[in-house]
Amino acid sequence: MNRKLILTLVMVLAVATLSVPAVAGSYSVTLTLASPVQFGHSGEMVSFFATVMAPGGNSGPVYLNGDSFNVASPLSLDDTPFLLNYPLSMNPGDNFSGLLFTLTIPNGTASGAYDGYFQIVGGSDPNGQGPLSNVVDFRLDVAEPSALLLLLSSGSIALFGVVRRRRLLRQ
Predict the structure, then answer these.
(1) How do residues 42-96 score in pLDDT, each as one tens digit?
(2) What would the pLDDT profile of 29-39 be if each residue is shown by its tens digit?
(3) CB half-sphere exposure, 116, CA atoms < 13 A
(4) What is the pLDDT of residues 125-156, one digit of tens each?
């Protein structure tokens, strides 16, 4: 008898569970970099702009609580523009565009390609820290100063020497 009662209760519970609509919601954003490949020189700072969009299929507001990123050394990434300027939350269908982060190229950085990624984290509440967006890859190609710039700078030094020599001769 107990066995029959347990089996009946399991069946009733299974039917009740299947008839309740799913509450699982979708909370995500799509992140798109305006220019994922950029160029820079040693000593410069390069800005990356992006658009973030909350799909219309989201179950409600999505909270942009932080980010996750990585960039090849010796470059450094500053995510302050994202943290200060992007919205704290987005309703389904919302989008926002603006400066996402900057990369600083230290003086003396060797020429080459430097890769990295950026991702937004958050969730359905202000405390969520799960991945919200797709991971966007970016690349910064660091180039040596051009020969023209070197020629101009050496020409400026020569011109300075001529002016200084004339001043000394006048005295």
Answers:
(1) 999 999 999 999 999 999 999 999 999 999 999 999 999 999 999 999 999 999 9
(2) 999 999 999 99
(3) 25
(4) 999 999 999 999 999 999 987 644 555 666 66
Q: What is the pLDDT of residue 67?
A: 97
Q: Starting from the edge strand earliest in sequence, which strands make up the sheet with 95-104, in order?
A: 30-33, 45-53, 95-104, 76-78
Within the chain, strands assigned E span 30-33, 37-41, 45-53, 62-71, 76-78, 89-90, 95-104, 112-123, 130-131, 136-143
Cα atoms found within 13 Å of the Cα of residue 38, Cβ hemisphere only: 20
Contact of 89 with 71, CB cutoff 8 Å: no
Q: Which one-letter DSSP state was computed for residue 74?
A: T
CB atoms within 10 A of CB 78: 13
Which residue is listed with tokens 């040596």?
Answer: 144
- List b or e across 140-167, with b for residues whose CB sees 16 or more CB atoms inside 10 angstroms: bebeeeeeeeeeeeeeeeeeeeeeeeee
CATH architecture designation of domain 25-146? Sandwich (2.60)
Q: Which token pair is 110?
A: 């060797």
